[in-house]
Each structure stands twice: as structure tokens, then as C-alpha cells.
């Protein structure tokens, strides 16, 4: 079980947060009851993931590099702690657009109890909103941003969300079948916001998106389109996924695409 957010957990304990064998943070503080049986993908109890380095980097000790942004989604005030230290600790325009889309379409998307995985979750706004809308969320990212991600999820979902979200390391293209075996993991939705920009992992990103999708999975990818490379990725995306443009935000140049993995 890789869900670990406990209502008893205080943010000051995050530095020492223990990990479950599958590489997820076990957030229950010493002496605090641990939430069991909520959220997280099924069947992952046997998976042994590597330790997650870097957790301490994002515990808010250097307060001058941190700021807080406030949002209102799903009828809740959401406070997201951001840091100037990493791309992954700032809310990007695709995230707010995707949150708006999820909020406006939550019933038709049937998010209640849906199994959702977010890739490149960054500071976690999308995962927070999906959780508040009733989904069972696993938020993933590179190891060194997971501490801040975990902090934001905890702060905004405890005592508010029906299913407490999980946090897991997922490095695009790395050990996918070992860490997220298709036989054990099924997601109704895979969410991704602003994961396409100038970086060297676009092919691995696409392979990761494909790996996480099975028949019935809907991928929702929100992105601010800036460069020709963004459109090149979209062309490759269309080769792998049946693609529908489901929303457009001209003021921010964000587009949201729905992708259904092509089979056969
Ligand atoms: C531009 S930020 C977007 C963050 C968040 N989704 C948002 O829209 O606010 C891109 C995210 O992708 C993550 N990322 C970048 N390269 C990655 C990789 N190779 N594997 C996993 N995550 C990666 C970053 O850590 C970061 O959180």
C-alpha cells in the first residue's frame, strides 16, 4: 500500500518521513495512526522500489526561496507552496487549465472513486484538485521534488478528500514495468500538465504515457504551446494515441488533449 497521508502528520515530520518498501512515502508520524485502505493503485504491496533520495531538499527550511499561491477549485481554498529552486516546484499554466477542466467536467468524467495517476505532478495542484473531486490519486515526479509535492498534498487534502493521495517516484522511461507493472496497475485517468517543454526526455515521456494507459484509460494532457518542438511532440503523440482536443485557453495558449492509446 503506498498511500501514506495521515491526518496526524505534521509538516515538520516530513523530513524524517519513512518509506514503504515500494518507494512511497509513509507519512504516518511516530505514534500516529496510519491511514490504511485509502487511495493508491491496487496490488503494489509487493513491489520493492529504490529509496527516494532528496526528500530533505524540499522540506521548507529555506523559507526565503518559498512562496505560497492560493487557488479556488472544487469549492475549496487551496494553498500551494512553491519554490524558485526547481521547475517542478512551481505551478505552470497547464495545471490551472487542467484543474478548471476537471472541475467543470467532474461529473461527466466520473471522477468519484476513479483511479488517477499524474505524471510530472510538480507542486501538486492538479493532484490536489483531482483528490478533492473524489478521485483516488497517485501523484508522481522526480525524486527531488517529492517532498514539496507531498507537503502540498498533505496540506490540502487531509480531512477534505475522500481518498488521500499517494506520492511515488516515477522517472519517465525508467523501470516502468518493474515499478508500475501493467498487470498490477490500472488507471482510469492519467493526467499530465506542462510536461512538454525543452528537455531531453520527450521520447521517454511518450513511452511512459503509453505504458500507463490500458484499454479504458483516458489520458488528459494539458500544455502551453510555445515552441515548434511542442507541436512535434503533439505529432508523435497522435501516432500513439487517438487524440481529441477537448479544451483550449487562448489567453494562456494552453490546449488540453484527450488521448486514448491505440491498440494493435
Ligand atoms: C514544467 S513542470 C510542470 C509541473 C506541473 N505539472 C504543473 O503543470 O504545474 C514539469 C514537471 O515534470 C517533471 N519532470 C521533468 N523531467 C522528468 C522526468 N524525466 N521524469 C519525471 N518527471 C520529470 C518535473 O520535475 C516537473 O515537476
From TrEMBL:
Keywords: Acetylation, Methyltransferase, S-adenosyl-L-methionine, Transferase. GO terms for molecular function: methyltransferase activity. GO terms for biological process: methylation. Residues 1-14 have a biased composition (Polar residues). Residues 1-55 are annotated as: Disordered. It comes from the Eukaryota. This is Methyltransferase like 21C.
Amino acid at each position: 500500500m503506498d498511500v501514506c497521508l495521515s491526518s496526524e502528520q505534521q509538516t515538520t515530520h516530513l523530513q524524517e518521513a519513512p518509506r514503504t518498501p515500494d518507494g512511497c512515502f509513509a507519512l504516518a508520524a511516530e505514534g500516529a495512526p496510519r491511514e490504511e485502505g485509502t487511495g493508491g493503485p491496487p496490488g503494489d504491496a509487493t513491489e520493492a522500489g529504490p529509496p527516494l533520495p532528496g526528500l530533505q531538499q524540499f522540506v521548507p527550511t529555506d523559507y526565503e526561496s518559498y512562496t505560497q499561491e492560493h487557488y479556488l477549485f472544487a469549492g475549496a481554498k487551496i494553498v500551494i507552496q512553491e519554490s524558485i529552486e526547481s521547475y517542478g516546484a512551481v505551478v505552470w499554466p497547464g495545471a490551472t487549465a487542467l484543474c478548471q477542466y476537471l472541475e467543470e467536467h467532474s461529473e461527466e468524467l466520473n471522477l468519484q472513486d476513479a483511479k488517477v495517476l499524474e505524471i510530472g505532478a510538480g507542486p501538486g495542484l492538479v493532484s490536489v484538485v483531482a483528490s478533492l473531486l473524489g478521485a483516488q490519486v497517485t501523484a508522481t515526479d522526480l525524486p527531488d521534488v517529492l517532498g514539496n509535492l507531498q507537503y502540498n498534498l498533505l496540506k490540502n487534502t487531509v480531512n477534505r478528500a475522500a481518498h488521500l493521495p499517494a506520492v511515488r517516484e516515477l522517472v519517465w522511461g525508467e523501470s516502468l514495468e518493474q515499478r508500475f507493472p501493467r498487470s498490477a496497475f490500472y488507471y482510469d485517468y492519467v493526467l499530465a500538465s506542462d510536461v512538454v517543454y525543452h528537455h531531453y526526455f520527450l521520447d521517454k515521456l511518450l513511452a511512459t504515457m503509453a505504458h500507463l494507459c490500458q484499454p479504458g484509460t483516458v489520458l488528459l494532457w494539458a500544455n502551453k504551446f510555445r515552441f515548434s518542438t511542442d507541436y512535434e511532440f503533439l505529432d508523435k503523440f497522435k501516432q500513439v494515441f487517438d487524440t481529441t482536443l477537448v479544451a483550449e485557453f487562448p489567453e494562456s495558449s494552453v490546449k488540453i488533449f484527450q488521448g486514448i492509446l491505440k491498440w494493435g
